[in-house]
Design a protein that fits this description.
There is one protein chain. The protein has 519 residues and is α+β, with helices and mostly antiparallel strands. Helices cover 45% and strands 24% of the residues. The protein is built from twelve helices and 17 strands. Strands 1, 2, 3, 4, 5, 6 and 7 form a seven-stranded antiparallel beta sheet that branches. Strands 8-17-16-13-14 form a five-stranded antiparallel beta sheet. Strands 9-10-11-12-15 form a five-stranded antiparallel beta sheet, covered by helices on one side. Helix 1 packs antiparallel against helix 3, helix 1 runs antiparallel to helix 5 and helix 6 runs parallel beside helix 7. The longest helix is centred in the middle third of the chain and has 51 residues. The radius of gyration is 59 Å and the shape is rod-shaped. The chain starts with 8 loop residues before the first helix and ends in a 6-residue tail after the last strand. The model has no long low-confidence stretch (mean pLDDT 83).
Length: 519
């Protein structure tokens, strides 16, 4: 939502600088006027004291005592003439009874406009010299009123050890010039303050406009990006922080574009992985087969979306069922593809063949030439003849299954020879190494087949679950059903692993014989 009261940065910056300038210049002007006023006060007081000292030095006490007005008037006239450049407008001499003996400009025609409206001026040098300074207004000829500063000093005649007052001398200075000078200083300082504030405001406006221009450009750039145009580039190239901001903005849009592309690619990959997961789930048995005299349970969990573990049940004939548990090196999509190839080849080779050795040899001959270096498949394959309770088993580099004999209450590790599929492209070594193992189920016997995701499940300390622990759990739960044995093993694996994520695919197949073997 657009703010209707939005004020541009240039205006704000200009107003701030103008206000700060006015405040600063106002304070400076106040101080300047104050200092100028004090200086003028000192100057006028010194002029008045000098003029008064000059006239007093020219007066003889006898002239005042004998009231020689002509002589006194001549002294006053000469002194007034010599002090006109000091702003002196009149000099008066009084006797001890305040009668005017002499005046330069006819002070007899002057009177104080308001005798009570007198203000005494404190000036230490005057006080030390015995001079009294007063400000008041005189009325000339009953009409004109003028502001006056008066300097008065008593005239004394030595009489033995004491001095007697015989009259007084008074110097009058016009305060009109003083006030005009003060007003002139105030006007000049006001004009200077106003001009400085205007200049500062104009300068700050131009500066703010110059600085705000790249900001406005960046705002427009951001608007373009906000509309989804991640290919847009800012053209701001200021050699300052704004230029750094523009470069960072361009880098940000580039990163956003790459992130968007990566997200799109990731979504496509996730979609493909979901498809691969669904396909792989469909390749795995939807349920365990019902084998007369046997209880079967199977579990599979991939570490990623798709995995390299594989298990399957193959109906070979009327009475034979093939069981396979395999593990492809690696994880993810490549492992899943190899697992799919292995599944297809194994199902094709197992048709009508009850010999696990020949079936696995056929799979290796077809699969090995197409395997890349470093890739291989470990596989456990056995065929169960249900009526005879007989098992024929081969192991191609895979973990050997655990067989629990209920009759002897012993655990047997079934480990016939065999190397993994895909390691021998010629097949001769593989054919010579593969070995079959045959044994018979009795009532209560249990066969557990698994991948290394079971025994190598790690806890927080990096310790493996181990085949030894798996064997212990199997022995402890051998009297239970196949699904219950499977659940006990999986629960113990979770207890061992704790909150550590699964790092490998996990496959577990449990087969328990529920009936005694026929005679």
């Amino acid at each position: 939502m657009t703010n209707p009261l939005k004020i541009p940065i240039a205006i704000k910056f200009t107003a701030l600088i103008a206000i700060l300038t006015l405040v600063a210049m106002g304070w400076v002007s106040f101080e300047a006027v104050r200092v100028a006023g004090e200086t003028q006060e000192i100057e006028i007081n010194e002029k008045g004291l000098l003029a008064l000292d000059l006239v007093v030095s020219r007066l003889e006490p006898e002239w005042v005592m004998s009231r020689q007005q002509d002589v006194l008037k001549e002294v006053v006239a000469r002194t007034l003439e010599s002090c006109q450049d000091r702003g002196v407008i009149d000099i008066l001499v009084y006797d001890e009874e305040d009668f005017v003996l002499a005046t330069g400009l006819g002070a007899r025609s002057m009177r104080v406009s308001d005798p009570e409206d007198r203000s005494q001026i404190e000036y230490p040098p005057a006080r030390e010299a015995g001079v009294e300074i007063m400000d008041f207004e005189f009325v000339y000829h009953g009409r004109e009123t003028k502001p006056i500063r008066s300097f008065e000093k008593w005239l004394q005649y030595p009489d033995g050890e004491s001095a007697a007052r015989i009259g007084r001398a008074q110097v009058l200075l016009s305060e009109t010039q003083i006030r005009q000078a003060r007003q002139r200083v105030r006007n000049e300082m006001f004009t200077l303050t106003l001009a400085t504030a205007l200049a500062a405001g104009l300068g700050s406006f131009l500066l703010a406009t110059f600085l705000a221009r790249p900001i406005r450009m960046l705002v427009k750039d951001m608007q373009q990006v906000s509309l989804g145009n991640l290919d847009h580039k800012s053209e701001v190239s200021s050699p300052n922080e704004l230029g750094d901001l523009a470069r960072t903005f361009n880098q940000m849009t580039s990163n956003l574009r790459e992130a968007q592309e990566l997200k799109i690619a990731q979504r496509a990959t996730e979609h493909e992985l979901n498809l691969a997961t669904r396909i792989q789930q469909r390749l795995l048995p939807s349920s365990v087969p019902k084998i007369p005299g046997f209880d079967v349970a199977a579990y599979y969990q991939a570490a990623q979306e798709v995995g390299g573990d594989y298990y399957d049940f193959l109906r070979i004939g009327q009475h034979d069922v093939g069981v396979v548990v395999a593990d492809v090196s690696g994880k993810g999509v490549p492992a899943s593809l190899i697992m799919t190839m292995t599944r297809s080849l194994l199902r094709l080779a197992a048709r009508g063949s009850t010999s696990p050795v020949e079936t696995v040899r056929a799979v290796n001959r077809t699969l090995s030439p197409d395997m890349s270096p470093g890739l291989f498949v470990t596989l456990l394959y056995f065929v169960i003849n249900a009526p005879a309770r007989m098992v024929r088993l081969v192991r191609a580099g895979h973990n050997g299954p655990l067989f629990y004999s209920a009759r002897s209450r012993k655990l047997i590790h079934v480990n016939p020879r065999g190397i993994a599929l895909g390691l021998d492209s010629g097949g001769n070594l593989f054919d010579s190494e593969i070995e079959a193992r045959q044994f018979t189920f009795h009532g209560g016997d249990v066969l557990v087949s698994y991948t290394d995701g079971v025994t190598e499940a790690k806890n927080r300390d990096g310790e493996d679950y181990s085949q030894k622990r798996l064997a212990r759990v199997l022995v402890e739960n051998a009297g239970r059903t196949a699904p219950e044995i499977q659940e006990a093993i999986l629960a113990d694996i979770d207890t061992h692993r704790g909150d550590v994520e699964r790092s490998d695919d996990l496959t577990l197949v449990v087969i328990k014989c529920t009936a005694a073997a026929p005679d």
